[in-house]
Amino acid sequence: MRKFMTQPWPQVLFGEGTSKELGAQCTRLGAKRVMAVYGKNLYATGAVEPILQLIAAEKDIVLERFDGIEPESPDYVVEALGKAAAAFDADTFVVIGGGSAIDTARAASMYRYCADIPFEECQRRGFIPLPEEQVNGIKLIFVPTTAGTGAEMSSGGPLLNTKTNVKGGPFFGVKLAALAVLDPTLTYGLSPYLTYTTAMDALSHAIEGMTGKTRSPRSDMFCGQAVEYIWRSLPRALENGEDAEARGELLLAANLAIGVETLRHLGHAICQPVGGLLHLGHGHSCALALPPALRMIANSPEVREELKLIAAKMGLDPASETVGEDIADAITESNRKFGIQSLKDMGFDFEQVRAAVPLIMADGRLLPNAVVAVSEADVETMLREMYEY
Fold first, then answer.
1. 251: Cβ–Cβ under 8 A, 6 or more apart, which residues?
2. Measured in Å, how far apart are the chain's first and last C-alpha atoms?
3. In sequence order, what are the residues at sequence separation of 6 or more whose Cβ sits closer than 8 angstroms to the Cβ of residue 175?
4. 250 contacts 199 by C-beta, under 8 angstroms
């Protein structure tokens, strides 16, 4: 049996309507100066204000708002939020949104203590050591509104360097949430496109978690359940956006897929640089990158049993001689069925895509977790499939 070591998990509150308990949860956690963090587009849906009113109604809580969240967690938003938190002297962030909001706020909660340094300098250094009291200084309460990244369970996340168009990180070490509130009703308003692409991010987390070098019996259990939830509930959620059970299973799947000690590998090593260079949504990049990444490991005996388990969770034949290819084909067919455009169909030139090769090959964190070594030619083959599948 493979060696593994468990890590702490945030406390999770799951259930329909649990976002209505946020005021009481802030008080329970001792929050006094709460900064609510979200984006303008999400606020316009009407989902945010009722939550903020509940928090503001709590005795002894002062509420401040930051609505500047943008997709893909750009560096300048981290800097703006960190400085706003320092000026307000926030002790708690309540972050409402998807992975970009959560990753941005996590970094900003630590940049808040060194906001006199330009964030660009922080990125250049790569890591800023902070005293433990500052690392733990701002409590994080995450309220995901997409069922994809599972960022509420993570201890770090990628940020976009807008000078280089490279997405990576984390730049501030690790920090876990004090509480993750999973309310499926907050995902009812997701468009079919966002429902699908965020689910593909979660599916990538699950499958990569089960097939990398850091896999363990825990990843088989948690990530395997995530694969099952996504594959059976995604079509239902796309057919009826207010199917409570389907939405709940997708939200739990995203949470479970990243809430283990496994690391992603080829799919994310490819899709993060491609997404940064082309300014493409992370979930869309994941949907395109997962099949070629699976094909690259399909014949590895090291993950044969895991691929059989994944196939069974997807309703495919686990005894098939081509089980890895079968999984990749099923995901490609799903992408086509639900209208996920190739990079070529989106209007990109292949040379634009190919520019990601050196960035991918320079990855020292995710690529080494793959069970096969890849060359530049292998990476170009995977990019070609993303380009014209």
1. 14, 144, 147, 182, 184, 187
2. 37
3. 106, 109, 110, 135, 140, 155, 156
4. yes
**Which two three-digit tokens encode residue 326?**
């079968």
Amino acid at 37: V
- Per-residue DSSP letters for 178-232? SEEEE-GGGGTT--HHHHHHHHHHHHHHHHHHHHSTT--HHHHHHHHHHHHHHHH
Structure tokens at 192: 């079919």
The label of the residue with tokens 């004090």 reads: 178
Each residue's pLDDT, cut to its tens digit, for the chain (389 residues) gives: 778 888 788 999 999 999 999 999 999 999 999 999 999 999 999 999 999 999 999 999 999 999 999 988 888 999 999 999 999 999 999 999 998 999 999 989 988 887 777 877 776 665 566 666 666 689 999 999 999 889 999 887 778 788 877 776 655 556 789 999 999 999 999 999 999 999 999 999 999 999 999 999 999 999 999 999 999 999 999 999 999 999 999 999 999 998 677 889 999 999 989 998 999 999 999 999 999 999 999 999 999 999 999 999 999 999 999 999 999 999 999 999 999 999 999 999 999 999 999 999 999 989 999 999 999 999 999 999 999 98
Helix H or strand E encompassing 66: strand 62-66
CA 177 to CA 159: how far, in whole Å?
A: 18
Q: Kindly compute the dihedral angle of the four CA atoms of residues 15, 181, 309, 263, in this order, to the nearest 10 degrees.
A: 180
pTM over 0.90: yes
Whole-number Å distance between alpha carbons of 356 and 353 = 6
CA pair distance 22, 325, nearest whole angstrom: 45
Report strand pairing: 179-182 vs 11-14.
Answer: parallel
